[in-house]
Write a structure and sequence with these properties.
Layout lengths: L1 E6 L5 E9 L4 E8 L4 H16 L10 E4 L3 H4 L1 H9 L3 E4 L9 H13 L9 H17 L11 H8 L1
Parallel strand pairs: 4-5
Antiparallel strand pairs: 1-2, 2-3
Helix pairs in contact: 1-3
Length: 159
């Protein structure tokens, strides 16, 4: 997931990169940075792997990494990292964001319920506010598509 620029009061924008469990709409890992480079997407991927599996390393169970065709996700650095963890990478058809509808909806919700409601003083402020919202989203906000369970509850029940 790659969220567009987030305005910071110092005039410099930042970007959020993250990973979502598509079936549960759970935001597993994310990273906020001044750049939108592959290293930032890599950090978000690694945070997602730690959140889901508790450690970094080759994943034993099948784990599909689906994304758009942005340079961040198709570059050698990121694709090599995905392979090194034993993940399967899948790309949507170019110019068809509806194929990544769940991710697009989570991005919209993050923008509407968090990012657009704040004026961030610094990247640290944005990181704290977005982190608090993601924790709320995953652990306290019921989702109609999950029978009014939170993503964390739905994952525990599915495991």
């Amino acid at each position: 997931m790659q969220l567009g620029a987030i305005g910071i009061r110092d005039g410099k924008s930042s970007r959020v990169s993250g990973g979502i469990n598509g079936a549960l709409t759970e935001l597993l890992g994310w990273h906020l940075s001044r750049s939108g480079k592959a290293t930032i997407a890599s950090a978000a991927l690694e945070h997602a792997l730690i959140a889901r599996f508790g450690t970094l390393g080759k994943v034993d169970q099948e784990f599909l990494r689906r994304s758009d065709n942005g340079l961040v996700f198709t570059g050698r650095h990121f694709t090599a990292l995905v392979r090194s963890y034993g993940l399967k990478q899948e790309f949507i058809t170019p110019h068809c964001p509806q194929q990544n509808g769940m991710v697009e909806r989570v991005i919209r919700t993050l923008k509407e319920q968090c990012v657009h409601r704040h004026r961030f003083e610094s990247i640290q402020h944005a990181t704290r506010v977005i982190g608090d919202w993601i924790s709320f989203y995953n652990n306290r906000r019921p989702h109609q598509a999950l029978a009014m369970r939170t993503p964390a509850e739905a994952f525990r029940l599915a495991a």
